[in-house]
Structure formats: C-alpha cells, structure tokens
Amino acid sequence: MAVKVVQEWLNSCSGCEISIVDMGERLLDVLALVEFVHSPVLMDHKYFGQLGDGKHLEIPEAAVGIVSGGVRNEEHLEIIRLMRQKCQIIVALGTCATHGGIPALSNSYSNQETLERYYGTESTDRPEEFPNQGVPTLLDACSALDEQVKVDVYLPGCPPHPDHVFAALVALVEGKPLDLPGRSVCDHCPTVREGKGQVKQLRRFLQPPYQQSPDEPLDKMRCILEQGMLCMGPVTRAGCGGDGITPRCLTARVPCRGCYGPVKQDGNQRLDMLNALASNGIDVGSLPETVSMLRFAGAHRMLRPARKA
Asked: NADH:ubiquinone oxidoreductase-like 20kDa subunit domain spans which residues (predicted)?
C-alpha cells in the first residue's frame, strides 16, 4: 500500500515544490511508493471542499506531511497546526520552513513599517488604511515551523537539492534514518586556502574572483574569503551541491550566500560569521552591514525590529 503524503506551502515561493519535480525520472519511483493526497501547488485539492461549500479547513490524514515556507499570518498558522494533527511525521522542506528564509528579513521591521514600506512610495501618499478584506491577519513575525509545531525532519535549502528530496522521501517510506551532509560548505569547497592572516579587510563583490584564466579549475582558484570578499561558507550547512557535494555558488565562482542555513539547526550564522572573521584578524568594521548574514535564517527571533531611540 502506498504511503499517503500531504504537501503544503505557506510563506514561500514554490521553489521547493519545483525541486520535487526536478527529481526527474526518480519522481516516478517515488510515486510508485507514495500517494499525494493533498498538494495545492501540484494538484487540485481545495481547502473547503471541491465546490467551496465546506465550513471548515479540510486536510486529509496522512503518514507524512511535507511543508514548505514559514508561518507569517493566521491562515498559515491554522494550516500548520491542522497539518500537525493530521500527519504522523512533519517534514520542514526548505530554509523558509527550517529557518524563516528570505521572507524572515521582514522581522527587522514592525508590521506597520512593513506595510508602509510596501504600499507607500515616494510618489504617492500612504493610504490611511491597508487592505484587510479577505486578507489573513499578519502575525508579529515570520517564524520557522518548529516555532509553532513539532517538526520531525529538517530538509534545508533554498531550494533543497532534488537528490536530498528524493533521499528523504525514500528514507521516510522505508523507515530508515535520513543521512544528509552535516558539515559546512567550506568542508566541501575545493578552492585553495592558505590560512589565517591573508586579508585584513573585506571588499564588496563587484568583480569575479581572481583566476589565472577563465577556464581554471575550481581547485586551482584561491578561496574567495581569502581574496577579501564575504563568503558565508564557514557557517553554512553543506548540501546545495546534492550528492555531487561541490557547492553550487562556488561552482559559479561566486561567494556562498548562506542559503542552507546554519551548520547546526540552532546556530546563529551572523554571530558565528563575525566570530570567524574576528578570529582570522579581519576587521568586521569593514562590513557595510550584517543583517544580510541572516538573509536565510532570520526566524527564531534572530532578527527583530530596531528599538526606537
């Protein structure tokens, strides 16, 4: 009998769902083992009945619930709580679900500031009131799933690599532990590192990293951080390269931006990165700002509105 799976997306962009499809032919292997009984982005299954005549939110019972996106409004909260009731196992799919993701950057502002920034422009007056008819009420902050309900499996990534989505589904069906990369991007980066003291200040990433030639292999290129450009590799969990491991950003000759979140689930990428820079003798004052160090992990109260003077 196929294992029933419910899939939901909350405060997200559908990139994680695209990773499910990007499993390619392996998706056929998965579909032979599981049955998706609810997935708004991939199939037609309504919350309030197919005719919309239901009175309450309906989500089928399932062995596995896969949820992408964080929790930003009351509708998201209602859905994830119902998912927790209906599913034996909850999988947080993607960095928005595990750590808030890009949407959690809004945690740097109050809801009022966010709405004023969104609806007000330099050329128009701010509206006296913001849209509220049929719109779910915003919560105080964008939160990761485990701030609201118990999460059983974490599958970070923006989006998670299809290799790991496939591995997770197979492991769940077969009842085996999921084995994902548990070290940092730097541990899998093939670039050349010469050690501490190579750079004192950081500069903006306005030009490609130095190479002898455009065709130079990655294992011949100097570490981007040692070239003086901020790379979040030391404090970011590996996995973006899938089973091939080599980090995708580095393959493209650009610094790691931290999309897989902290190496440990409860890590703080900003604090850990500042400590790493300081311990290597790099002037952290050369950074124009540090909020972007949490561009993928601003939930768990890592980012908060600035206090008024």
From this structure: 13-172
